[in-house]
Amino acid sequence: MIRKIISILCIISILICSHANNTNASSATEVIELNRHKVIELALKNFVDVKLAQLKVDATKAQLAYVQSQIDLAGKGINSPAIISLPDTFEEIIASIPNYDELSEEEQRELDYIIGIQMMINQSLNPVLELVGGIQYSTVFTDYMNSVASLKQAGITAEKEESIAGIQLESTLELVKYQATYQYYELLKMQNELEQQQSISRELEIHLKDSNVLYSLGLIEKGELDRLQREYNLQLNLVIDQQKMFDLELRKFSTKLGIDRKKQVKLQPVSSYTSFIPTDEKKIDMSKMIELRLVEEEVIFNKEMAESANGNNPELLKYYQKITETQTETKAIIKLQISQYIEALVLEGNALINQVNGNEVQYEASQQSVKDIQLLFFAGKVTSKEVETVEFQRDRAHIALENSKLEYEIFKEKWLLVTNGVMVNS
């Protein structure tokens, strides 16, 4: 134990000297400390998934606005028929002849005879002209109605796509918050495990130094010393590898969060763990579940399309009606899947609670073991090496407890996610 204290003091001295030598360099490096709140804030701002989902929403809104503008424009493009009509009364024809009153009676009688003939011709032509105009209008009107029907269907599709894009954005925001906090807690677990391996390295280093002394006194064989040296080297390489892996994962995570590579990133440990949360599956609001809402949008879409096709295309109407029936059945299946997911999630939460409680008992027992063996050490009944072994077991129990608490924190994020309508694969 005394050797361990001396070793720790030496390490602290080295760190202090190192810090003093690098004060100027480190002072120029901005440090970003990450906690749960900061991680969520940066993730919502910088995760690519959020940006893509928002762009999709913007695109569907623009599409819907365009289709609606085309519908409004089409409504202004049809006018009443402009039917050509010839003058077919004596008065109308006379009115079109200039200086009729200035003609002599004989000239007027001759002209009246001609007007009578023209009047009969015009009266026979007007029904034909009216029919032709009506046919032309009917063709234009039919084309117009077909165009409006197509635009209305396009509008229904655009409304559905906008609604689905909005729902998917909600889902993406919730998933991004979960993914960010999950990675944060996983990095904390990696950091705990790295610290544990570093502790093992320190223990082996002390043991190796003691063994060198024993070997110089002829108390152990060269083979035993070589074995301890190999064990220490392997452990040292393990620590180096884990440190590289941790640094890599932390850098990747920082990049996703939009943090500049020049900035130093530190993880704030969870200062205080919240108490266990109630997991009552009956309080989950099924109407909020994203999977159900997406299917419901499809049901609404197909009903509206069926209504728009009613009377115009019987086969298309049958198709949409069948699809609607299928999607209604799909909703029932999804509800069952959600119920099964929530039930499994409740079991997972209970298992993690038991794990945390069990690790707390083990850690408390290990703390008591350290107190007991320290008393034996001061009484001269055990060696410092035996004390260090028990202290090491306590440290391992503490890390196991911390990691199990982090596992439960991840579970709480998952439970929060499902209460907001989103399921995630374990």
State the helix count. 10
Work out the oligomeric state of the chains in this entry.
single chain
Distance between the termini: 43 Å
Mean pLDDT reading: 82
Shape: rod-shaped
> Which ranges are low-confidence, i.e. pLDDT below 50, for 5 or more consecutive residues?
1-20, 23-27
What is the SS-derived class?
mainly alpha
**Helix percentage range:** over 70%
Q: In percent, how much strand structure appears in the residues? A: under 5%
Order of helices and strands: HHEHHHHHEHHH
Largest sheet: 2 strands, parallel
Signal peptide: 1-20
Protein name: Outer membrane efflux protein
Organism: Candidatus Pristimantibacillus lignocellulolyticus
Keywords: Signal
Write the layout of secondary structure elements.
Elements: H1 2-21, H2 23-27, E1 31-34, H3 36-46, H4 48-75, H5 90-95, H6 105-216, H7 222-256, E2 264-267, H8 290-309, H9 314-378, H10 384-419
Parallel strand pairs: 1-2
Helix pairs in contact: 3-6, 4-6, 6-7, 6-8, 6-10, 8-9, 9-10
Question: How would you describe the overall organization of this protein?
Answer:
The protein has about 425 residues and is an all-alpha fold. The chain has a domain at about 285-425. It is about 80% helix and about 0% strand. It has ten helices and two strands; from the N terminus they run ααβαααααβααα. It has helices at about 1-20, 25, 35-45, 50-75, 90-95, 105-215, 220-255, 290-310, 315-380, 385-420; strands at about 30-35, 265. It has a two-stranded parallel ribbon with strand order 1-2. It is rod-shaped and about 160 Å long. Residues about 1-20 and about 25 have low confidence and may be disordered.
